[in-house]
């Protein structure tokens, strides 16, 4: 009798080697635990050197593992990264961040009231979009992910248009085609948001390459979360950026959580996200994402670098998602209840306000007045927007818009389907139906 | 010109006419592409207009989307159609939908060129025909030329188009039309009328089929390599078939199909791609919907089999003379 072995056993024979084990990452704290982030290394504010913008990436590796900081926890701006902004500029930054928060709060409530399907807050992360957008030129192109409403706010995109998009109402510039918060605003340098993660990464590189090849002076900036830095597109983008020395800034917003998966599932247990830059020969910076001045300074550095043909930079914004992933998420089901308050880097808005106070340029009264002013602004705008309709209360777009823009010119098969749909509409609603 | 030269000429002409156009892909620059389709273009038009890329299809198509959004007109090459899959998300979810999702804010005027189809002993990863996957995407146009003259005119139209186009090049007929008999020599294109390709600009409108051969007995719908295989068998059998070369699968020239099938009353669909959910299924459904009362026989399909492309048995896989002859006999029997 001949012995037949299963194919799988034809390799290394069994031996007395110890059994291998598979590591499944696990976050440090789960519901019911008391979080303690005391062991996170927080370098002194003035401990991180600021290299020249033309420094070779391999000479600044430590910056991928450290933390660029400007504001200490007493509200003082210190060290080589201090961008030394004027009080007016600081107040503008504070105002933008507070407006993002007021907008988020009201739209979150609007979703809870059933006025729209979905919303995503950026609470605790406002600096990562507001401060970084303020540090680049108005003409630079932003390729956002879904939590960068701060870009539009900084670039004074009309709030009502954001709301119209969220409500998919008849004022929605995108004709009700996109999920709420997936804005598009080319005239504000804001690329159309995709629901597929990190797809904007190679696109930003392509835009930056195009700008460089045309001898333009504009650069591209792009954002993704630490979770989606695991996508292949992220790595494709970094490869192309380093190969062609593309003038692009990669922002990885490490807010610790990708829905319920902690950053360990994106590879964050063993290295920093900024350190991904090292393998590509790209400059990398890891910054305190809750420090608006550090975010501003790092972005300004990267923008100057890109604009002087010194190539791309990857910035990891080390921050914390203080709210759920979206209105469809319940973070209390997977993380410790008070993680956000235990996060050692505080709240970016409170930190900037404190800084302005230490400069004698701000006080609690003004803060409260501004908060109220912005709440009122958002509330008034919301009322105006809701006059144009809310999601699910009637259909707000002419039906035939469904078939427009699939192609520049409508081919016969879409014309036929459009005709069929209009006949269905007439059968259902009568010949005089108009969008509500 | 052969087909490669015609494709090269189309890009050359367009690079000269439109400074927004760029050609990019693996090996397309200095070397001129593994099939030589981009030979000489970098030297003539410069490194920033025609350049090599990393081996990264997701990056190639994704970067092209960004270039299109900037205002360029990228023409990326995917070295073999089989390798389009790593870049498919950028094509399906991004390029194809950009205009729609942004309500026209951003467009993606790219033409993805890629050689496809079998018959060159390319094995399972250099032989596939993914056209039905492309036509299933909303927002992408799919073009397949079958001769040098059409290839140049269609490629120019594709490059000028403001929508994303997938331009599938039947690599079996790059150098000459293929009879379907693998053991016969392939005649070079130079012996054929379609090799008379003007050096200058001309375009063939997308969405228009061509009648390769007029006839009364049945209508045969084909594209790419299969146009020539079909023509050979039809001529050998002396069948009075009307052969329609679809040229563009999306948008499809439904008028040409309908007119012909209503005239002949019979329809045979021939493609090299696998059968199940292949483009032939779409064509058969359309013919049935529009021409049912004119049909004198069931619509039939001749296709590749539902297996991966087998290396050594590729001629058994290929829908060649025997399979086509059997179908022709069958469809004409009553």
UniProtKB/TrEMBL annotation, chain A:
Required cofactor names: thiamine diphosphate
Domain of life: Bacteria
Segments forming domain 2-oxoisovalerate dehydrogenase E1 alpha subunit N-terminal: 18-58
Catalytic activity: N(6)-[(R)-lipoyl]-L-lysyl-[protein] + 3-methyl-2-oxobutanoate + H(+) = N(6)-[(R)-S(8)-2-methylpropanoyldihydrolipoyl]-L-lysyl-[protein] + CO2
Species of provenance: Sphingopyxis macrogoltabida
Region ranges (Disordered): 1-56
GO biological process: branched-chain amino acid catabolic process
Sample GO molecular function, one term: branched-chain 2-oxo acid dehydrogenase activity
Family, similarity comment: Belongs to the BCKDHA family.
InterPro entries (UniProt xref): Alpha-ketoacid_DH_E1_comp, DH_E1, Oxoisoval_DH_suAlpha_N_dom, THDP-binding
The name this protein goes by in its record: 2-oxoisovalerate dehydrogenase subunit alpha
Classification lineage: Bacteria, Pseudomonadati, Pseudomonadota, Alphaproteobacteria, Sphingomonadales
Function: The branched-chain alpha-keto dehydrogenase complex catalyzes the overall conversion of alpha-keto acids to acyl-CoA and CO(2). It contains multiple copies of three enzymatic components: branched-chain alpha-keto acid decarboxylase (E1), lipoamide acyltransferase (E2) and lipoamide dehydrogenase (E3).
The protein's Enzyme Commission number: 1.2.4.4
Keywords: Oxidoreductase, Thiamine pyrophosphate
Domain spans labelled Dehydrogenase E1 component: 95-387
């Amino acid at each position: 009798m001949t012995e037949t072995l299963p194919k799988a056993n034809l390799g290394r024979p069994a031996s007395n080697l110890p059994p291998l084990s598979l590591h499944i990452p696990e976050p440090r704290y789960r519901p019911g635990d008391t979080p303690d982030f005391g062991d996170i290394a927080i370098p002194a504010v003035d401990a991180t050197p600021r290299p020249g913008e033309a420094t070779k990436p391999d000479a600044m590796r430590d910056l991928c593992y450290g933390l660029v900081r400007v504001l200490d926890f007493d509200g003082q701006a210190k060290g080589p990264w201090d961008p030394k902004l004027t009080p007016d500029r600081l107040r503008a930054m504070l105002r933008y961040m507070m407006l993002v928060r007021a907008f988020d709060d009201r739209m979150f409530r609007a979703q809870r009231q059933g006025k729209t399907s979905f919303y995503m807050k950026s609470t605790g992360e406002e600096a990562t979009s507001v401060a970084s957008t303020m540090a680049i030129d108005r003409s630079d192109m932003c390729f956002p992910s879904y939590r960068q409403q701060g870009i539009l706010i900084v670039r004074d995109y009309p709030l009502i248009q954001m709301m119209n998009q969220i409500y998919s109402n008849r004022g929605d510039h995108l004709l009700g085609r996109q999920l709420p918060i997936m804005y598009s605003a080319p005239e504000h340098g804001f690329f159309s948001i995709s629901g597929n993660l990190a797809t904007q990464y190679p696109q930003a590189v392509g835009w930056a390459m195009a700008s460089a090849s045309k001898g333009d002076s504009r650069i591209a900036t792009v954002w993704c979360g630490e979770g989606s830095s695991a996508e292949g597109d992220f790595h494709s983008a970094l490869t192309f950026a380093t190969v062609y020395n593309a003038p692009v800034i990669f922002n990885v917003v490490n807010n610790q959580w990708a829905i319920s998966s902690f950053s360990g599932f994106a590879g964050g247990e063993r290295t920093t996200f900024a350190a991904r830059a090292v393998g590509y020969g790209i400059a990398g910076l890891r910054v305190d994402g809750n420090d608006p001045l550090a975010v501003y300074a790092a972005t300004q550095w990267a923008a100057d670098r890109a604009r002087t043909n010194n190539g791309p930079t990857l910035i990891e914004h080390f921050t914390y998602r203080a709210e759920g992933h979206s209105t469809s998420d319940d973070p209390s089901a997977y993380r410790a209840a008070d993680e956000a308050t235990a996060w050692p880097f505080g709240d970016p808005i409170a930190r900037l306000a404190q800084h302005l106070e230490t400069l004698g340029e701000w006080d609690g009264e003004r803060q409260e007045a501004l908060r109220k002013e912005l709440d009122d602004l958002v509330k008034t705008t919301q009322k105006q927007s809701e006059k144009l309709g809310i999601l699910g209360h009637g259909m707000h777009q002419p039906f035939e818009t469904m078939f427009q823009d699939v192609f520049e010119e409508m081919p016969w098969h879409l014309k036929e389907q459009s005709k069929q749909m209009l006949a269905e509409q007439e059968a259902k609603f009568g010949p005089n139906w108009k969008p509500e | 010109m052969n087909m490669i030269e015609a494709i090269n000429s189309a890009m050359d002409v367009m690079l000269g006419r439109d400074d927004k156009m760029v050609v990019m892909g693996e090996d397309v620059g200095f070397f001129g592409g593994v099939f030589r389709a981009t030979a000489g273009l970098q030297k003539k038009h410069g490194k920033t207009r025609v350049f090599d890329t990393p081996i990264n299809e997701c990056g190639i198509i994704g970067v092209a989307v960004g270039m299109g959004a900037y205002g360029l007109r990228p023409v990326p090459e995917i070295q073999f159609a089989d390798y389009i899959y790593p870049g498919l998300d950028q094509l399906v979810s991004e390029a194809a939908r950009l205009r729609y999702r942004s309500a026209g804010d951003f467009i993606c005027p790219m033409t993805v060129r890629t050689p496809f189809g079998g018959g060159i002993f390319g094995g399972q990863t250099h032989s596939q025909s993914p056209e039905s996957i492309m036509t299933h995407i909303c927002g992408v146009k799919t073009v397949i030329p079958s001769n040098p003259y059409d290839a140049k005119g269609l490629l120019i139209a594709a490059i000028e188009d403001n929508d994303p186009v997938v331009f599938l090049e039947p690599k079996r007929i790059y150098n000459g039309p293929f009879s379907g008999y693998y053991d016969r020599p392939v005649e070079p294109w130079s012996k054929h009328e379609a090799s008379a390709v003007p050096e200058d600009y001309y375009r063939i409108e997308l969405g228009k089929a061509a009648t390769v051969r007029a006839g009364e007995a049945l209508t045969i719908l084909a594209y790419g390599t299969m146009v020539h295989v079909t023509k050979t068998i039809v001529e050998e059998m002396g069948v009075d078939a009307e052969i329609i070369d679809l040229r563009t699968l999306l948008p499809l020239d439904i008028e040409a199909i309908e007119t012909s099938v209503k005239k002949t009353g019979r329809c045979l669909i021939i493609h090299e791609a696998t059968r199940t959910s292949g483009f032939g299924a779409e064509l058969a459904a359309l013919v049935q919907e529009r021409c049912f009362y004119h049909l004198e026989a069931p619509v039939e399909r001749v296709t590749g089999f539902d297996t991966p492309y087998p290396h050594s048995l590729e001629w058994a896989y290929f829908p060649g003379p025997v399979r086509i002859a059997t179908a022709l006999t069958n469809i004409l029997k009553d």
